[in-house]
Amino acid sequence: MAGQPQPGSNPWITFDVTNLTISEPGLPPSTVIESTNPFAVNIDFEFAGMLAPWLVSLGFNVDLRVRFESLGTGPEVTSGPTPVVTAGGTLNYSGTVNVAPGTLSPGAYKVVGTAIVPGSPIAGYFEGPILQII
Asked: Region 40-62: what's the mean pLDDT?
């Protein structure tokens, strides 16, 4: 959805966070989770551009975090970071941020996933769905 440097902004290197899904273990993606169950947020991201193959071959961390923004008077919660290590030959990545049972109080939350390369200007985010914790 968004990244810095943004896709199409230059031919050398671009970065984009492309998807975010929420699911409970063994179940299909969902936007309604019981507060007593663990769940996971999967974040997909990709590198592109002429320098991307060389850059990812350096094997650096991309830190994934998920921000749960309460739609009301509930808490604001951040989960992560979960590091994903780049590797030569791979430009598309996926990582999972696990959320323990009881992390979120019952209520509605806007979900935003971020992918950040520490110490660099490479960062991106994806605005996910509204999540209902029951």
From this structure: 96
